[in-house]
Amino acid sequence: MLSRAFYQNPTLDVAKNLLGKKLIRRIGNNFLTALIVETEAYIGAEDSACHASKGKTPRTEVMFGEAGYAYVYFVYGMHYMLNVVTETKGFPAAVLIRAAEPLENRPIMVKNRKGQEKHVCNGPARLCQAFLINKSLNGNDLTADKELWIENGQEIANSEIVSKPRVGIDYADAKDREALWRFYIRNNSNVSKK
DNA sequence: CTCTCGATGTTCT
DNA sequence: GAACATCGAGAGG
Question: A116 falls in which pLDDT band (50, 70, 90)?
Fold first, then answer.
């Protein structure tokens, strides 16, 4: 299990370092695992794409807290997103987990996705469906939790990491839309978009 | 394979 | 009341 110190770093570093790590979810006696292949950084009140840019609210409160906690929220009336809080207490920042590559117990993930064999984890909302992640996990401590946490996986070389603008933030300022704060593993077929 | 379009509910104005 | 860090079904190539 990754320690708190891993998350207490600059958000862009954490976003890149999370690539190749193993996301683990316990469902009863079964353990779902998947390799993280795509992330996005949301950094501080100055980032107009970050939820925290509108100030601290009950919804975004977790992002203002200590690093290493899960920030789970609901969008579009039907989808959950999984983020991990980074940096220091009082500075709102998080990394969105956008996609992963199924490792163990893939059949259970497919079942959670209502039988969808393709596109099991290649999208933030799909990942949450496959892993049964919902608001009940919001605020859980990923450095101590028994239901959801992250472990070391594969080493990903810097040359294998691709940087792109973030997805789905048309409402943000131009400078924030253009920021290359989306990271994914080159040539991995599980990323959410080409 | 690609594209379009509508569902859905929480949050904030 | 509007916007929203999306997805999947269905139509067409």
Answer: confident
